[in-house]
Amino acid sequence: MTTIRTATRSGTRGARITWAHLLVAKLFRKALIRSHRKKGDTFLGQPVLYLTTKGAKSGTVRVTPVGYVLDGPNAWLVVASLGGAARNPAWYYNVVAHPDALSIEVAGKRYDVTAEQLTGDRRAEAWDRITAERPSMAEYQTQTDRILPVLRLTAA
């Protein structure tokens, strides 16, 4: 298993994330998560898990809804896409900074998880599966010049 030692670098181009996106996310994070949970852990018809991380700088516990693709029993593939932005999402840096402080909630069940960043052939295989199930990920990749990190979360 490859542990995450350093974060994948940001790109030089990508989808524009405006201050309005960030403000809405910050102000309505709890309400959005409650709403997602009531609707069966989906967003726009796609499955969502709730990733709990420890803030890379603040140490504050954060919960973030993240789309996923199942990867066998008790394993989930997630992509740090941030909608194709030039930079990685904050939750990704939290995972890198505190890989020992991760948990997820899926379908009402909580799991402590370990994260593995996939590379090489394993990433290519996972990427093919992810983009087959979630075509938006392929679109996000075309919007940025960074390689979107693919993480495999496994129940501990």
From TrEMBL:
Gene3D superfamilies: Electron Transport, Fmn-binding Protein, Chain A. InterPro entries: F420H2_quin_Rdtase, Split_barrel_FMN-bd. It catalyses: oxidized coenzyme F420-(gamma-L-Glu)(n) + a quinol + H(+) = reduced coenzyme F420-(gamma-L-Glu)(n) + a quinone. It comes from the Bacteria. SUPFAM superfamilies: FMN-binding split barrel. It holds the Pfam family F420H2_quin_red. Belongs to the F420H(2)-dependent quinone reductase family. This is Nitroreductase/quinone reductase family protein. It comes from Tenggerimyces flavus.
